[in-house]
Design a protein that fits this description.
Elements: E1 11-16, H1 20-30, E2 36-42, H2 45-55, E3 59-63, H3 71-81, E4 87-91, H4 97-105, E5 109-112, H5 117-128, H6 136-147, H7 153-163, H8 168-175, H9 179-193, H10 198-207
Parallel strand pairs: 1-2, 1-3, 3-4, 4-5
Length: 216
């Protein structure tokens, strides 16, 4: 992947997205700002970590989903090695569970890919200045999440089977667990989501971004 020479007088940027046209568009837009400099780009999780390690950009614009691992994985890997890294998540959706996971993991900002140039520039400058840049609605959701117990990976799998109308016996067979364990997971899901039945649990799963339409 192509890299660029750095100008230390500018805010250096690493653009990470698996779609070449998105990267081209972002670079063209960012190039209009005299204080921005895109110094590297990457198209998957491993390359993102490598490019950060090589160039130490001021800001990373990171796609939420890409080959080789989600943006959440990149956030955790980069911050483990470089705790001061400043990462802004880019996504097409505002209810993805991964959005909240990435912010919980230490990302400093969150921007929808549909935002205008001014809003993106504001987010970059704000995060570069040491602040977080997260929409108020997302901040509220983060606060609510902090007060509740999150679903485990296994519970999300069970919830996904529930949305497909599978019985506890069918869930158990699909996941290689006992029917008793499947029922325990279901009870835990209802308790954590604060709902009374499976239908409400599935509705809550979509609302919170735990479930996604069109999957399996």
């Amino acid at each position: 992947m192509k890299t660029f020479s750095a100008d230390l007088s500018k805010i250096s940027l690493l653009v990470v997205d698996d779609h070449a046209m998105v990267r081209i568009g972002l670079k063209a837009m960012l190039a209009l700002e005299p204080d921005f400099a895109v110094i590297a780009e990457a198209e998957d999780a491993d390359e993102a970590v490598l490019r950060f390690r090589e160039h130490r950009p001021d800001i990373v614009l990171l796609d939420l989903r890409m080959p080789g691992g989600t943006g959440v994985v990149v956030v955790k890997r980069v911050l483990k090695e470089f705790p001061a890294a400043r990462i802004i998540m880019l996504t097409s959706f505002d209810l993805e569970e991964e959005v909240f996971q990435s912010l919980d993991a230490g990302a400093k900002g969150y921007v929808l890919k549909s935002v205008g140039r001014d809003e993106l520039n504001h987010a970059i400058r704000k995060v570069h200045g040491g602040e977080r840049c997260i929409p108020p609605a997302i901040e509220q959701r983060l606060s609510e999440r902090a007060k509740s117990e999150p679903l485990t990976t296994r519970e999300i799998e069970v919830l996904d089977h529930m949305r497909r109308g599978h019985s506890s016996r069918e869930i158990a067979a699909a996941l290689g667990i006992s029917e008793h364990t499947a029922k325990n997971h279901t009870r835990a899901i209802l308790r954590k989501l604060r709902v009374s039945d499976r239908a409400e649990a599935v509705a809550a799963g979509f609302e919170r971004g735990l479930l996604h339409a069109g999957r399996g």
